[in-house]
Design brief:
The protein is α+β, with helices and mostly antiparallel strands. Helix content is 26%, strand content 22%. It has two domains: 80 residues, no CATH class; 46 residues, no CATH class.
């Protein structure tokens, strides 16, 4: 049976070699067959990065994915774990695609920049109505953006990643 223990433990797992209480905490968790899923800092400030939030599990094989969300809603990064469902083998079929834009093509970025620079924007400001002005701007901008960074449809390819294990070397 899969069990998870999660929370803000206020013990920096990145410092377990130098901090006795953190070492003892990890020793207790490992002794009870609970292993950390999060291996990167979860609280980052201008001068410090600590791994104090975590999810410990007793079944690494039944966690399909875990990690961090990069969000500025708190000084702690949200953490997550997705367990493997009963029948996760066929959740994606041959017809599953993702729609995206390639925004890493340098020529497309230059083309978009040039279009923005060379466009006459004065007609977007003719109206005294802010809604009309906004709509005019968005329509022009969107047409240029879509022409430089067209949507592409790519097939999803699943990969089976192994859990990176414990960063502390135990």
């Amino acid at each position: 049976m899969l069990y998870c223990i999660m929370g803000d433990f206020n013990l920096n797992l990145l410092n377990c070699q130098n901090h006795k209480l953190t070492y003892e905490f990890l020793d207790i968790m490992y002794s009870n067959m609970f292993f950390p899923l999060i291996t990167r800092p979860t609280r980052i400030t201008s001068g410090n990065a600590t791994l104090i939030d975590n999810i410990f599990t007793n079944d690494l094989d039944n966690c399909s994915s875990s990690g961090l969300f990069f969000a500025d809603i708190s000084d702690h990064l949200p953490i997550f774990c997705l367990p493997i469902t009963q029948d996760q083998t066929n959740i994606f079929d041959d017809s599953t695609y993702v729609v995206s834009r390639d925004m890493h093509n340098y020529d497309s970025v230059l083309k978009f920049r040039d279009k923005l620079r060379n466009t006459n924007w004065t007609d977007t400001c003719i109206s005294n109505d802010p809604i009309n002005t906004y709509n005019s701007f968005i329509n022009k901008f969107t047409k240029m953006f879509d022409s430089c960074f067209p949507l592409s449809k790519d097939k999803i390819v699943l990969q089976n990643f192994q859990n990176p294990g414990c960063p502390m070397g135990f």
